[in-house]
Structures are given as structure tokens and as C-alpha cells.
Design goal:
By secondary structure, this protein is α+β, with helices and mostly antiparallel strands. It is built from 3 helices and 14 strands. About 20% of the residues have low confidence.
Length: about 280
């Protein structure tokens, strides 16, 4: 093997190493730009409605949603160009969304929406939702295939007519996540989106020690999805009317980023292929 061939393999291998590792960056919310550069508002439920933004709590940065007397749900879209104009950041199946969440009181919930990035419509989003201490003892994971995290016009925000939960038959799972509602401690959340050999969408959600999965039989899974978060803090003006997210990781990178990196890798391989014969 010639020196040029060896160099080419190193370079192309480095590029694919970047593809494999660059998607693992974690958003820590230690700076306000971690919020403003990655999210835009889709919904603030009620009037005046909830709010979201960057907060420093005991030296730790978080993304915080707050509630009010008339409504507390806040829905935010992951978007690296958060100008409230479609299209938004999209991802391919094989997607994993992970983060830590802090919910100070019972019955609060946090969810991950997956919208069809190619054709976003109302009442078609997938949703994996976690409710903490819904019965005083048990927690609940719920899946939906007909959730609605937005208005008919994806470019319009904020809206107050969205947030439908919906549910799929047999999709509610109760159990203990090993996390009691707390104003100080976090629990880890992991949501995975894949498709089976029939291209049916499959969701799995793990929160602490509680895990559940659901296959949407008969549906064709979205080719590309946009990610949104459904945050439901307490509907009051008390000191515990908040819900915090920290340490967010989305794997893989947005579809366009991966495609570009793979293309670059392919160009390097083509450039040095001739030296390897």
C-alpha cells in the first residue's frame, strides 16, 4: 500500500469518525444561547399562558418552563434556526432523544413529539409522554400517533389551540420509574424512534427504571421527523410552577448534517481511490 493510499484512508476514516462522534454533543443549557439557538415556541397554553427560557439554578443552567393559573403547558420545537418559519431541523429514523428532567410536584408531565418534517399536519404527530406520580405511587408512560403539538400553520407561533394528547389503544403503561416528584432532583429520559421491516413506526420510552414501547401497526413511519417537547408544569403561581430540562442529546445529527458529512467522506474516498491500486 502506497503512502498516498494510506493517507487517504486515514483522512476518509477521520471523516467517518466525525460522522460517528459529532452527533453526541450535549446541550447543557449553561448559557442563554443554548436555548435561543436551539428552540422556538409552538405553544403557551392559556392566557397569559406558560413561558420558557434559560435559568441558572444553584449554579446549574437549565431550560425552564413555567405555568400560570389559567394554563401551564408549553410546547417548544427543536430548531437550530429558530425564526418561527418552516422548514425546521429534521432527523431520520434511528433517532434517540435523551435528557434529564426535574418535576417538582405529582401529575406533572413531559413528552417528546415527533412531527412529519416532510408534511407537518395537525393530529398526526407521534408522542411519548411521561406522567410522574399520577396515582400517588405509580408513574405512567403513554404513546400517541395522533397528537397535535401545533396549529395548521407551522410558521405561526405562539398558538393557544394546540397540544392534543391523543392515545393509541393499549399504549398506556403504569409502573414505578424510581423517581418521586422533586424540586431538586432530576430523572433521565430516553425516547427512541425506529421503524420495523414493514416501515411501521416504533417508539420506546425509558424514564428512570420504567420502560415501555409501542408499535403503530398499519401506519407508515415518517421518513424525516422534527422534534418538539411538551412541558407541563403546575398550573399556578406557586413557587413550584416549573419544569426543568437539562443535558439534552439528540442522536443522530440532523439529516442534512449527516448527508453533508457522508458526501465529504465519499469525495475523499474517490480522491484517493486511484492511489490504492
Amino acid at each position: 500500500m502506497g503512502r498516498s493510499c494510506f493517507r487517504g484512508l486515514i483522512v476518509s476514516g477521520t471523516v467517518f469518525s466525525i460522522v460517528a462522534t459529532s452527533h453526541a454533543a450535549t446541550i447543557t443549557f449553561d448559557s442563554a444561547s443554548d436555548v435561543t439557538d436551539h428552540f422556538r415556541l409552538l405553544e403557551k397554553d392559556g392566557s397569559p399562558g406558560g413561558t420558557f427560557g434559560h435559568q441558572i439554578i444553584s449554579g446549574n443552567g437549565v431550560l425552564r418552563a413555567t405555568g400560570h393559573n389559567s394554563g401551564g403547558r408549553v410546547t417548544i420545537m427543536y430548531d437550530t434556526t429558530p425564526s418561527n418559519v418552516a422548514p425546521v431541523t429534521s432527523f431520520t429514523p434511528g433517532l434517540t432523544v435523551e435528557f434529564d428532567v426535574r418535576m417538582p410536584t405529582a401529575s406533572r408531565s413531559v413528552g417528546v413529539y415527533l412531527l412529519d418534517a416532510n408534511n407537518p399536519n395537525e393530529n398526526t404527530a407521534y408522542l411519548a409522554l411521561f406522567n410522574v406520580d399520577v396515582s400517588g405511587i405509580n408513574d405512567r408512560i403513554r404513546f400517541s400517533h395522533n397528537a397535535n403539538p401545533k396549529s395548521a400553520d407551522l410558521a405561526v407561533a405562539p398558538n393557544t389551540n394546540i397540544g392534543n394528547l391523543g392515545s393509541a389503544p393499549g399504549s398506556d403503561v403504569t409502573g414505578t420509574a424510581g423517581y418521586g416528584a422533586s424540586s431538586t432532583s432530576f430523572v433521565h429520559v430516553k425516547v427512541e424512534y425506529t421503524r420495523n421491516i414493514l416501515n411501521e413506526p416504533m417508539l420506546q420510552m425509558t424514564v428512570g427504571s420504567l420502560s415501555a414501547s409501542h408499535t403503530y401497526t398499519g401506519l407508515v413511519g415518517f421518513e424525516n421527523v422534527s422534534v418538539a417537547f411538551r412541558m407541563s408544569p403546575l398550573n399556578s403561581n406557586s413557587g413550584n410552577n416549573f419544569l426543568d430540562i437539562d443535558n439534552l442529546t439528540i442522536v443522530p445529527e440532523p439529516a442534512g448534517v449527516l448527508s453533508a458529512l457522508v458526501m465529504v467522506g465519499g469525495l475523499f474516498i474517490r480522491r484517493y481511490r486511484g492511489f490504492c491500486h
